[in-house]
Design a protein that fits this description.
Blueprint: H1 19-27, E1 32-36, H2 70-82, E2 90-94, H3 104-115, E3 120-127, H4 134-146, E4 148-156, H5 160-165, H6 172-184, E5 188-195, H7 202-214, E6 219-224, E7 227-228, H8 232-238, H9 247-259, E8 266-269, E9 279-281, H10 288-302
Parallel strand pairs: 1-2, 2-3, 3-4, 4-5, 5-6, 6-8
Antiparallel strand pairs: 7-9
Length: 312
């Protein structure tokens, strides 16, 4: 650990629990993620809960294209990574839409297909709290006994008034119920947070981090609201009805959020990747290196670190 860094889960100058550190101490080195499109949809797109999706989601803006077979997707990712690293391992990341929203047989087939690929050492499955019925939880428990499993829940905010505005389709109590069911089954869970949602201020965002941190999740992802072409927020932004965070405000918010998150929680992401060809705002978000460097710099200047103000 670098001298004068008070944060215990670090081998360098980072004052927060990075995914690199976690993977190094869990797997012995870097782990790549193979992003998989499992061909799923979402109850917020197909009319079960709503249509058009969340206001920031571009999934409802056009026709779906049938993805390649899972084995082919993984093979393409392997080919890409092999150009950078000869000996590597990957986690199959089912990221697109709601990846537990399908008949149980289909879920079993797709997840096990990924696990049968020799490069794959685990699964990461993105889903919604309202798409975890008992039969799915049973399947996830079985997978959890066989491999390294993470369930990623897109809670975004604890504030139901905000969630209603962007058409999330479930309340915070529904999230809590599903989260506790996952924890009862010892399933590693990663919670997604979005900063900069319309009508939320610094106090709202800090409260989201504090409340979610009090749940002691195994992992969290923090990212900025990206305004994308083809979304409801994109249209509102073009009309001047919503604005976006400045880079400085985002960095300061993340630094303060980290202070109320327990140190053992892995922060798998502290900024995000918006699709460049669809990105409307904020354009500064495409410079991830500058944002990450700004977080490191502010933490050092303030002598701040993840968990500094976490209340046991």
């Amino acid at each position: 650990m670098v001298k004068n860094n008070p944060f215990i889960y670090s081998d360098d100058n980072k004052r927060y629990h990075t995914l690199y550190y976690h993977n190094k101490h869990t797997f012995g080195g870097r782990i790549w993620k193979a992003v998989i499109d499992g061909g799923f949809t979402c109850p917020n797109l197909d009319g079960t809960k709503g249509i058009g999706g969340c206001a920031f989601c571009d999934g409802g803006s056009g026709a779906f294209t049938k993805p390649l077979p899972i084995q082919e997707q993984i093979a393409l990712e392997s080919e890409r990574i092999a150009k950078k690293q000869s000996d590597f391992k990957m986690i199959a990341y089912f990221q697109v839409h709601t990846n537990t929203y399908a008949p149980i047989g289909e879920l079993q087939q797709k997840f096990r297909t990924a696990l049968n690929c020799p490069e794959i050492v685990g699964l990461s499955i993105g889903t919604r709290p309202d798409c975890l019925p008992d039969e799915v939880l049973k399947l996830l428990s079985e997978l959890n006994e066989q491999t390294y499993l993470t369930i990623e829940l897109g809670v975004q905010t604890i504030h139901d008034r905000t969630a209603e505005n962007f058409n999330r389709g479930y309340c915070f109590n529904e999230f809590l119920e599903s989260y506790h069911k996952l924890q009862e089954r010892n399933i590693r869970t990663c919670l997604h947070v979005i900063n900069g949602l319309p009508d939320e201020n610094f106090s709202d965002m800090l409260e989201t981090a504090k409340v979610l941190g009090s749940l002691r999740p195994q992992a969290m992802k923090i990212q900025l609201l990206h305004i994308l072409e083809g979304t409801r927020y994109g249209e509102l932004w073009k009309c001047g009805k919503i604005c976006v965070m400045s880079q400085h405000d985002y960095i300061e918010t993340v630094v303060r959020q980290m202070e109320v998150i327990p140190p053992e929680t892995v922060l798998e992401r502290v900024t995000g990747d918006g699709e460049k060809r669809k990105m409307l705002a904020p354009l500064w978000s495409m410079d991830k290196i500058r944002t990450l460097g700004g977080i490191d710099k502010m933490q050092a200047e303030l002598d701040s670190w993840q968990g500094k103000l976490f209340d046991e």
